[in-house]
Design brief:
By secondary structure, the chain is of the alpha/beta class. 39% of the residues lie in helices and 14% in strands. The chain has a single domain, classed as Glycosidases (TIM Barrel). The strands form 5 sheets. The chain has an 8-stranded parallel β-barrel with strand order 1-2-3-4-5-7-13-14, surrounded by 5 helices. A two-stranded parallel sheet has the order 6-8. Strands 9-10 form a two-stranded antiparallel ribbon. β11 and β12 form a beta hairpin. α3 packs parallel to α5, α7 runs parallel beside α10 and α14 packs parallel to α15. Bound molecules: 6-O-phosphono-beta-D-glucopyranose (BG6).
């Protein structure tokens, strides 16, 4: 392995999302969102996947997003911890329903704007650049119940009004924006991904791809608006990344892996290249999908993103014989279990070379700067008798992935920065657990919501601090 060299000005930091960290789910006039309806426990997956329609909260369920890690009230202390590690970038999301509580109002909620202005000013105080996701899975519930969420074209208008408000209100404080977090997750987890639930007898593929069309048009439209409001704004798309490997060199397996990659890359193909890819027509035909489009949509889609961001946790694997029984989901996308890679406590593959492979594929395909905005190891942490958390396993995961990133940079790929996922422990999106921890900072809270919420620096905190201080040289 060659020596890892990161360019001057490379952005180092970490990432959170509003729905997994803020809590205070009704404070300051905030409206309910899709994620607020997803309980911890047995009903979580059916609700999350849109299989069980739940449009009302139940008193016998525990909802982890409602309090999360209390970032809404503790953000100043938490940002101070990030500054202590030397972060130059902090990725978070704005909760759409703090700015437009119902989603379809004509005027925004001043309290929501004030909260995020204060948060971004706090970042500015420490020289930390915010990287802001406009929608990280949390669609206002009113838009789900009244309009059917993204299946409805009116969502383009609601989302662009919301995005315009953010670009105007936070102009000068935020210049890096992402439109939809892991846009491809819409296919795999329709309710948490896009607020979709299906009616009996309808073709879910039709609903999903029509919703995807609306999101893609909305994403392109707000990219245009962002550039008009301030030419310094840079807008990215966001992929739940990780290449599919063929199970074997059998041509049928290679083709299966290519098709699985296309299923996810379809979204980024549109956002980065400005038009539907050539393979889309056949995919739609075979799935019985007909997309309703307006004449102006093709021109709107040509407003492509400035950079391509992505999450990477693990590579994936596919064969021609892959089916529901022999595959399982790591980060929602189904995959065969690759016997050649190690696994985390939650069964997610650990494959640093897969990161280099994924980055090379993406850059070859899009020729746009990349930004790795999520990466990390979800693990159980123990506090020892001295009150310390010695998370060497996390350090070694991150070290290997940073080395792979360095190799990809040496391969000639412009990488803007790196934000590790859950830099402060937060609620896991898939399981709703607190015990699946990613952070450099431990949060005293358990899966049932007990705990003081106290923050404790882990061993990885000190390690990451010197990684940043050395611009990636001291791993
Ligand atoms: C990504 C999401 O899918 O993976 C995050 O953007 C999520 O919201 C992360 O938290 C890790 O997944 P999990 O289920 O371990 O939280």
């Amino acid at each position: 392995m060659s020596e890892v060299t990161f360019p001057e000005g490379f952005l180092w930091g970490g990432a959170l999302a509003a729905n997994q960290s803020e809590g205070s789910y009704l404070a300051g006039g905030k409206g309910l969102t899709t994620v607020d309806m997803i309980p911890h426990g047995a009903h979580r997956m059916p609700v999350k996947l849109g299989q069980e329609k739940r449009f009302a909260l139940r008193s016998d369920e525990y909802y982890p997003s409602h309090d999360a890690i209390d970032f809404y009230r503790r953000y100043k202390d938490d940002i101070a911890l990030m500054a202590e590690m030397g972060f130059t970038v902090f990725r978070t999301s704005i909760a759409w329903s703090r700015i437009y509580p119902q989603g379809d109002e004509l005027t925004p909620n001043a309290e929501g704007i004030a909260f995020y202005r204060s948060l971004f000013e706090e970042c500015q105080k420490y020289g930390i650049t915010p990287l802001v996701t406009l929608c990280h899975f949390d669609v206002p519930m009113h838009l789900v119940t009244e309009y059917g969420s993204w299946r409805n074209r009116k969502m383009i208008e609601f989302f662009s009004r919301y995005a315009r408000t953010c670009f105007e209100e936070f102009n000068g404080l935020v210049k890096y924006w992402l439109t939809f977090n892991e846009i491809n997750i819409l296919l795999h987890s329709p309710f948490s991904g896009a607020g979709l639930v299906f009616e009996p007898g309808e073709n879910p593929e039709q609903v999903k791809y029509q919703a995807a069309h609306h999101e893609l048009v909305a994403s392109a439209l707000v990219t245009k608006i962002a550039h008009e409001i301030n030419p310094e704004n840079q807008v990215g798309c966001m992929l739940a990344g990780g290449n599919f490997y063929p199970w074997s060199c059998k041509p049928e397996d290679v083709w299966a892996a290519l098709e699985k990659d296309r299923e996810n890359l379809f979204f980024i193909d549109v956002q980065a290249r400005g038009a539907y890819p050539s393979y889309a027509a056949r995919v739609f035909r075979e799935k019985g999908v007909e997309i309703a489009m307006e004449p102006e949509d093709a021109a709107t889609l040509r407003h492509t993103v400035d950079f391509v961001s992505f999450s990477y946790y693990a590579s994936r694997c596919a064969s021609a014989e892959m089916n529901e029984q022999n595959s399982s989901a790591a980060n929602v996308v189904k995959s065969l279990t690759n016997p050649h890679v190690k696994r985390s406590d939650w069964g997610w593959g650990i494959d640093p070379l897969g990161l280099r492979i994924t980055m090379n594929m993406m850059y070859d395909r899009y020729q746009k700067p990349l930004f790795l905005v999520e990466n990390g190891l979800g693990a159980r942490d123990e506090i020892n008798a001295d009150g310390e958390i010695n998370d060497d396993y996390r350090i070694s995961y991150l070290k290997e992935h940073i080395q792979a990133m360095g190799e990809a940079i040496a391969d000639g790929i412009p990488l803007m920065g790196y934000t590790t996922w859950g830099c402060i422990d937060l609620v896991a999106a898939s399981t709703g657990e607190m015990s699946k921890r990613y952070g450099f900072v431990y949060v005293d809270r358990d899966d049932k919501g007990n705990g003081s919420l106290e923050r404790i620096r882990k061993k990885s905190f000190w390690w990451y601090k010197q990684v940043i201080a050395s611009n990636g040289r001291n791993l």
